[in-house]
Amino acid sequence: MIFKFDKANSLSENDVTDESIYKQRRDILKKLGYLGAGSLLAASGSASAGPLDWFSSDKAEAFKTTPLSFKKSNLNLEIQTPEQKATSYNNFYEFGTGKGDPVEKAQSFQVDPWSLSIEGLVEKPITLGYEDLFSTFNLEERIYRLRCVEAWSMVIPWVGFSLASIIKKAQPLSSAKYVSFQTLYDPKQMPGQRSRFVGGGVDYPYVEGLRLDEAMQPLTMLSVGMYGKTLPPQNGAPIRLVVPWKYGFKSIKSIVKIVLTDKQPPTTWQNLASDEYGFYANVNPAVDHPRWSQARERRITSGGLLTQNRIDTLPFNGYEEVASLYKGMDLRKFY
Length: 335
Ligand SMILES: Nc1nc2c(c(=O)[nH]1)N[C@H]1C(S)=C(S)[C@@H](COP(=O)(O)O)O[C@H]1N2
Ligand SMILES: [Mo]
Hints:
The chain has helices at residues 13-31, 37-49, 83-86, 101-105, 132-135, 163-170, 191-194, 212-216, 268-272; strands at residues 115-120, 126-129, 140-147, 152-162, 178-183, 207-211, 221-226, 229-230, 240-242, 255-261, 296-299, 310-312. Helix content is 20%, strand content 19%. A hairpin with a 2-residue loop joins β7 and β8 (229-230). It is globular, with a radius of gyration of 19 Å. With 335 residues, it is an alpha+beta fold. The chain contains nine helices and twelve strands. Strands 3, 4, 7, 8, 9, 11 and 12 form a seven-stranded mixed beta sheet that branches. A five-stranded mixed beta sheet has the order 2-1-10-5-6. The chain binds the ligand Nc1nc2c(c(=O)[nH]1)N[C@H]1C(S)=C(S)[C@@H](COP(=O)(O)O)O[C@H]1N2 and molybdenum atom. Molybdenum atom (MO) is lined by residues 91, 148-150, 248-249.
């Protein structure tokens, strides 16, 4: 690896591109009438302060994370995104649409007590309390790439367990074909759920879904930690989904409910703009977003923004072992 000069406070063309994609994604919300002058002003204010504001270290201190014990990953092939960046540059619209909003506004988020239920078309419904999230399954570390639909990516060491293990424990009925997920709905704690302007016009709770075979794929995990510790709230504490071959919006945060169903469940971004965000949303450099290219991505690593490389985006985000799930689907098409 070539050492690169860390010029922490410069803006490069890459940053401008990144910022413009992020704004374009918000355009759909504006068209729908959800982003008022106030939030646009706020957004341009943070833009002029510079994207490096999102990486400032002083904000991530308040929430206390706890060290976890887990089986260490023996795979570490790519340079990890520094913890400080992965925990201060976030999408979690329940706390606002700005990249720095979640770390700023989620620090008093209450994760204990928590209740996660697995229900629907299962033989044995399960309810897990806060402690159960960490003690019911063996925790292991998995270092995955996370590729946001906005064309930036990170490499994050998650701690958690396979979604398959909890689904197996609940014993799905043969009629179960899909799995739906729901984030906590608690407008008292989540400012974005109190105001459509703060929350980007999303109809909360945030919902997501997978086909059952995608949910059972061993890479699909429920994460309860990152960087060896419990998740901070801005990353989806106490438990969130991680599906590394799909765009980041599929990896739903702060989950309270998992329901096995026989019908394809609705998803938050499809509900907002079904021509821009599909149900499958597999990372695919050959299918552009209607308003920007998905061929390349900005990898967020150490150092300032100038050292964050533009790299080619890989089909299925490089996790080609999942391709067999999509036999018969035309990989040049939008799903
Ligand atoms: N409930 C909820 N989950 C969510 C989101 C959100 O706004 N609300 N944003 C998604 C998007 S767009 C991305 S890229 C990832 C970001 O995860 P990270 O902040 O841990 O990197 O979370 C996803 N999960
Ligand atoms: Mo995303």
